[in-house]
């Protein structure tokens, strides 16, 4: 796809001055700021009473740190996540090889074998179909490469 320059942007018109809603003094705006500051100070005074309902930022940070990471080994999840990342790296290398016109048949064979091994280990039917499709694509690219 060819992208051309911005082309003719046309002429711009002159800007018009906006009318002020509150007059020239701006006292209404200043008054609303004052009222908001008073309400905020009242609210902070109520919260800083130190009651049991107040939560400090340190408590929040400690609570967040207590939550487990999605890649931690809870229920045997770490190995599939690492394998998925490895698979994505292999697929990216193959994509770059296809775009450059230089793809290694060894990489395609290794990918096909790894997918065949791992496909039987999954209980998820959708993931199984996806792995089967990727394996098929790797075999097709390998067959194309061997025909050259």
TrEMBL record:
It comes from the Bacteria. GO terms for biological process: bacterial-type flagellum organization. Residues 1-54 are annotated as: Disordered. Residues 27-54 have a biased composition (Low complexity). This is Flagellar assembly protein FliX. It comes from Marivibrio halodurans.
């Amino acid at each position: 796809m060819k992208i051309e320059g911005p082309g003719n942007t046309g002429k711009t018109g002159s800007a018009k001055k906006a009318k002020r809603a509150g007059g020239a003094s701006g006292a209404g705006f200043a008054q609303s700021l004052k009222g908001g500051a008073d309400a905020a100070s009242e609210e902070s005074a109520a919260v800083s009473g130190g009651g049991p309902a107040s939560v400090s930022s340190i408590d929040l940070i400690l609570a967040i740190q207590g939550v487990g990471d999605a890649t931690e080994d809870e229920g045997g999840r770490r190995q599939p996540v690492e394998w998925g990342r490895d698979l994505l790296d292999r697929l990216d290398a193959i994509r770059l090889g296809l775009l450059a016109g230089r793809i290694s048949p060894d990489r395609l064979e290794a990918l096909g074998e790894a997918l065949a091994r791992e496909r039987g280990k999954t209980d998820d039917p959708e993931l199984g179909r996806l792995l089967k499709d990727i394996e098929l694509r790797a075999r097709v690219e390998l067959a194309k490469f061997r025909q050259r």
